[in-house]
Design a protein that fits this description.
GMP Synthetase, Chain A, domain 3, 3-stranded mixed sheet, binds guanosine-5'-triphosphate, alpha/beta, P-loop_NTPase, 37% helix, 2 domains, 324 residues
Length: 324
């Protein structure tokens, strides 16, 4: 002790602490109402675009993981879809996925946007969280850049009270701005000690273990939904049938052939997706191809087909086929 406090060099002390502290590794997930900023926060923590973000709710349907590698800890982020009142079989399945994820992680981060009143949707989620007793829960006030400090303070108080009302205490309460990169590093600092002692679970360099085909499908789905969400909010599913390098290409000019089907529920929706003279579908193809090329780092030929999967949201067999 005496030797430590006499040490004049704080850097060396930090070094020593780093050497003696056990390495930790584990899983965390962010939950919260749609549009709360979960995907953006995941991306900010990981430092690269891995989850799909958009300015509209419920684009994250699949569980996408980002991995934060630090000297002292490895944090694996599981990005879940938003929990919502189920109206269809698909909705119920999604909620099951969410709850299963919650029960399996080491830390849960509840995301509440600073600029939105704490509402019934948030209470519904936190009530569910209160039932998961063993897992530490952090309240994260997102988008702190959008409000003045007074409003931020009120939000911090409101979420703290909600915990009290429901009979549990948040392990931490912290405001962040993923967009302004404010307190994002601190959030990782707070999560790390809550993880179990463990060597790294993934090799360094892995940013995500989401299968590429699922991520590609998500990128296409995101592009296909753009501008038509009000007409087709939950009626689009995308399945990548095949991803193959084109044969007979020179080594320095590779091309990846991707065949994907865009499923809609009713024949009448075909026109909305395809657009006049196929213009819209072409735009969807161009846009998603650019994102896919950025993701995979290789030129892509994208072949898109629109197919009708009648009432797939309500048919368990169709749901399984589409991977739910
Ligand atoms: N100003 C500001 N905007 C943010 C911040 N974080 C997210 N946003 C915006 O909020 C919107 C929703 O963010 P997402 O990360 O897609 O939210 P989400 O919770 O993952 O949404 P779902 O996938 O629908 O559940 C996007 O338009 C983001 O750009 C932030 O820190 N500041």
């Amino acid at each position: 002790m005496g030797a430590m406090s006499a040490r004049p060099n704080p850097e060396a002390a930090a070094q020593q602490a780093e050497n003696t502290a056990p390495h930790r590794a584990g899983f965390a997930c962010f939950v919260g109402r749609p549009n709360a900023g979960k995907s953006t926060l995941t991306n900010a923590l990981v430092g690269q675009k891995v989850a799909i973000t958009s300015n509209r709710p419920q684009t994250t349907r699949h569980t996408v993981r980002g991995i934060v590698h630090r000297p002292d800890a490895q944090l694996i982020l599981v990005d879940t879809p938003g929990l919502h009142k189920p109206r269809t079989l698909l909705g119920e399945r999604l909620n099951d996925v969410v709850r299963t994820t919650w029960a399996e992680v080491d830390v849960i981060g509840f995301c509440l946007p600073a600029d939105q009143k704490l509402g019934p949707g948030d209470k519904y989620i936190v009530k569910e969280l209160a039932g998961i007793k063993k897992t530490p829960k952090i309240a994260i006030i997102t988008k702190s850049d959008l409000v003045e400090s007074k409003q931020l303070a009120e939000q911090l108080l409101a979420v703290s009270r909600l915990g009290e009302e429901l009979g549990f205490e948040w392990a931490e309460i912290i405001p962040v701005s993923a967009v302004k990169d404010d307190q994002v590093g601190l959030l990782a600092d707070l999560i790390a000690p809550l993880l179990p002692e463990s060597p790294p679970l993934y090799p360094e360099g892995d940013l995500t273990d989401e299968p590429e085909m699922v991520m590609v499908a998500e990128l296409i789905r995101e592009a296909a939904l753009e501008g038509v969400r009000d007409e087709l909010p939950h009626s689009i599913a995308v399945v990548v049938e095949e991803m193959l390098p084109r044969e007979d290409r020179p080594a320095d000019k590779p091309l990846l052939d991707i065949h994907a089907n865009v499923y809609i529920e009713r024949p009448s929706q075909k026109g909305i997706i395809i657009g006049p003279k196929g213009k819209r579908l072409k735009e969807v193809g161009t846009k998603s191809r650019k994102h896919i090329e950025a993701l995979l780092g290789t030129p892509v030929f994208l072949d898109l087909h629109v197919k009708v999967a009648k009432d797939w949201q309500r048919d368990p067999k169709q749901l399984r086929k589409l991977g739910f």
